[in-house]
Write a structure and sequence with these properties.
- This protein is an all-alpha fold and about 260 residues long.
- The chain is about 80% helix and about 0% strand.
- The longest helix is centred in the first third of the chain and has 32 residues.
- It is elongated, with a radius of gyration of 20 Å.
- The chain starts with a helix and ends with a helix.
């Protein structure tokens, strides 16, 4: 466990040791803040109109007009951002020929994979932590449901963690960070749009494909409903891609 944490610390430090990490962090906070400001303005307008219309007072609330839409936009931003976070995990080490040194050290392939993944998760946690100031604004504007907020943060973290797992596997198959970025984004986009299969092809196969999509398991979480099925899906999804990455790293030991 100590070796895993040491690798995770090294990976986390690498994000803050390069301009790319700071650009991703600042860009994420600025873009999410921009969308939050736009939604806050729209909510203020709708709330002002609802004050003079008794039929709209129950329809305009901070949970439906701010919390859920903002987290939905944040998920789209993370879809674009996570491939950039994960593209360097193995590709950079292979390009610099430092992976051979890591493989020859007294650590297992599983420890290497888990350590790198935990380092990326640590940086993801920093990104989400940078959005906590929005909670103060939400409570100033209205009375958001703490359960909905908590479920959305949990769901967003699990969704982004799944993004990182896919991106890390893509990074393990190439020395080019650009190739890893393109492949992981293409795969994630395909898994994202599978949620439309039930609408475009209303059949049993369409329902199965929609259930595979990561987006379909966010619907209940965004409403504040923390179902075991959805959490199990994300954990199984992450575990599968970590296992595949572990097998890829293990194959390098036999080359």
């Amino acid at each position: 466990m100590r070796a895993t944490l040491a690798i995770a610390r090294r990976e986390l430090d690498q994000y803050f040791a390069t301009p790319m990490g700071w650009l991703l962090l600042c860009g994420f906070v600025l873009v999410t803040g921009f969308f939050f400001a736009l939604m806050t303005t729209d909510y203020s307008v709708q709330a002002s109109q609802a004050a003079f219309n008794p039929y709209m007072q129950d329809q305009v609330n901070v949970n439906d007009w701010l919390v859920q839409p903002w987290f939905a936009n944040t998920a789209v931003i993370l879809l674009l951002l996570c491939p950039a976070l994960s593209m360097r995990l193995f590709a950079e080490d292979r390009r610099q020929r430092s992976l051979e040194l890591l493989l020859s050290s007294p650590v297992t392939s599983g420890q290497i994979v888990l350590g790198k993944y935990l380092g990326a998760l640590g940086f993801l946690s920093v990104l989400l932590f940078g959005t906590l100031h929005t909670l103060l604004i939400l409570y100033w504007l209205g009375d958001p449901d703490p359960g909905i907020l908590a479920a959305n943060y949990v769901g967003t973290f699990l969704l982004a963690a799944a993004f990182l797992a896919v991106g890390m596997l893509a990074s393990a198959f190439t020395e080019s960070q650009v190739v890893a970025l393109v492949v992981s984004f293409g795969g994630l986009l395909a898994l994202w749009v599978l949620s439309w299969a039930d609408t475009l092809a209303p059949s049993s196969w369409g329902g199965v494909l929609a259930h595979i999509s990561m987006l379909s398991h966010m619907e209940q979480l965004s409403k504040g409903l923390l179902h075991v099925e959805d959490v199990t899906y994300y954990l199984t999804f992450i575990g599968f891609f970590l296992f595949a990455t572990w097998q890829r790293v293990e194959a390098w030991r036999w080359q």
